[in-house]
Automatic annotation (TrEMBL):
Domain of life: Bacteria
KW Cell inner membrane (keyword) present: no
Organism for this UniProt entry: Candidatus Proximibacter danicus
Residues that hold Fe cation according to the record: C91, H133, H137
Keyword Hydrolase among UniProt keywords: yes
Active site, UniProt feature: E134
SUPFAM superfamilies registered for this protein in UniProt: Peptide deformylase (SSF56420)
Designated name of the protein: Peptide deformylase
A GO MF term: metal ion binding
Entries under Pfam families matching the protein: Pep_deformylase
Cofactor binding mode and count: Binds 1 Fe(2+) ion.
Protein task: Removes the formyl group from the N-terminal Met of newly synthesized proteins. Requires at least a dipeptide for an efficient rate of reaction. N-terminal L-methionine is a prerequisite for activity but the enzyme has broad specificity at other positions.
Family that this chain belongs to: Belongs to the polypeptide deformylase family.
Length: 167
């Protein structure tokens, strides 16, 4: 399975709003498999289709320690949220940058699985953070959008410097 290139902040394609998946066919299942492979290789705990320049509502997540429990959420929608938590986040599209972001502590999310079946999941802690972070991507947001303007400017210049070194 091919690894997919991951867009890097501030690439404007990260701002595209993803459309719902209308037909869960072989190409969607292949994309989910390739995204999971790309996420494990990176390594990361979540990846949104937006980050691989596919602007459809599909995310893959695996917060398991064994890295063998990939979760694919298609057309995810948060039905309810509760409480607040602040955790340190990072993102495969913003390499080397970690900062604190406030998220709901607990969420209820409805989505389609790879078989096209509607699922409802109650998540809290890290899984809740990860789902909120990935759904943000589908809407064209990156976690650094939650940070101050000053921090965002610093992150942009840090990443521009990295790009010059690795180019
Ligand atoms: Ni991310």
């Amino acid at each position: 399975m091919p690894l997919l290139p991951i867009l890097r902040f501030p690439d404007p394609r990260l701002r595209k709003v993803a459309v719902p998946v209308t037909n869960i066919d072989g190409s969607i299942r292949q994309l989910a498999a390739d995204m999971a492979e790309t996420m494990y290789e990176a390594p990361g705990i979540g990846l949104a289709a937006t980050q691989v320049d596919r602007h459809i509502q599909l995310i893959v997540i695996d917060i398991s320690e064994e890295r063998n429990a990939p979760l694919t959420l298609i057309n995810p929608e948060i039905l309810a949220d509760e409480g607040l938590q602040i955790g340190e986040e990072g993102c495969l599209s913003v390499p080397g940058v970690y900062d604190k972001v406030e998220r709901a502590e607990k969420i209820t999310v409805r989505y389609l699985d790879l078989a096209g079946k509607t699922q409802t999941l109650e998540a809290d802690g890290l899984l809740a953070v990860c789902i909120q972070h990935e759904i943000d991507h589908l809407k064209g947001f990156v976690f650094v959008d939650h940070l101050s303007q000053l921090k965002q400017a610093r992150i942009k210049s840090k990443l521009a410097k990295q790009a010059r070194i690795t180019a």
